[in-house]
Amino acid sequence: MMRPLVIGNWKMHGSQASVESLLRELARPGEQLPADVVVCPSFVHLQQAIGLCEGSPVEVGAQDCSAQDSGARTGDVSAAMLADLGCRWVIVGHSERRQYHAEGDELIAAKITAAISAGLNVVVCVGETRAEREAGDAHAVVAGQVRGALAGQASLGGIAVAYEPIWAIGTGLTATPDQAQQMHAFIRAQLPGQKGVETNRVPLLYGGSVKPDNAAALFGQPDIDGALVGGASLDAGDFRHIIMAA
Ligand code: PEP
Questions:
Q1: Phi, psi (5° rounding) for residue 153?
Q2: What is its EC number (predicted)?
């Protein structure tokens, strides 16, 4: 069995004071956790978070990176800069990046390539809107996103996929464990083969209103290898509870 992976996406939340208090509770030096745990604060809090996680099992990731290695890209942050700082992970293709920054599959695939070549692990997000699900298009949309992001990658090593139905993100609505498992099994079947790792070794995370009271049922599904957690990762008690359920 794969070791579970639980990632907290702190989005555009927090201050130096809140990052410190959250990580004093979450990142305990020498502690053994039942899952690999990553927190993804905003760019401006990365360095502080990396310092606070030192000696603990918690790793730090960023919420995005540029597809470019360096150059005239005002406001962007390269994957190499993140790796140089001590980040281990980066989230790519989150639905909020797709929605508010018009990111498409081609750009997302280029960001994955940049991140992997900088030595980062990547979690690439896919998921359908409510309208797409209601129209019966969820599988086609997700398959297109998976193929668009991954078909051109030389290897799937270092890549995790997060299934995040957009209708479940930040809404309090969660896919049922059955709905999530069904889509995860479908995503696993879409993963390109012959890419360096067995497709059943690629971590598939569920994201969308994961909370302490639904985490165990989701983690109990055979193709759910962990979670990408937004709102509940901003509460140390709730996030710990989710980690312990993994
Ligand atoms: C997310 O934004 O990745 C997410 C899953 O958010 P939430 O857990 O708040 O739904």
A1: -75, 145
A2: 5.3.1.1
Question: Could you confirm whether 31 is annotated as catalytic?
Answer: no
| CATH number of the domain encompassing residue 215 | 3.20.20.70
Please tell me whether the interface predicted TM-score (ipTM) of this complex is above 0.95: yes
Domain of residue 187, residue span = 78-246
Residues contributing to the annotated binding site for substrate: 9-11, 170, 209, 230-231
Which parts of the chain sit beneath pLDDT 70? none
Would residue 45 count as lying in a domain? Answer: no
Q: Look at residue 42 and tell me if it is in a domain.
A: no
pTM: 0.97
Q: Is residue 213 part of a domain?
A: yes
127 in contact with ligand 1, CB cutoff 6 A: no
Give yes or no: 132 in active site.
no
Nearest CA to ligand 1 atom 7: 230
Could you tell me if 207 and 227 are in contact, meaning their C-beta atoms sit under 8 angstroms apart?
yes
pLDDT of residue 195: 87
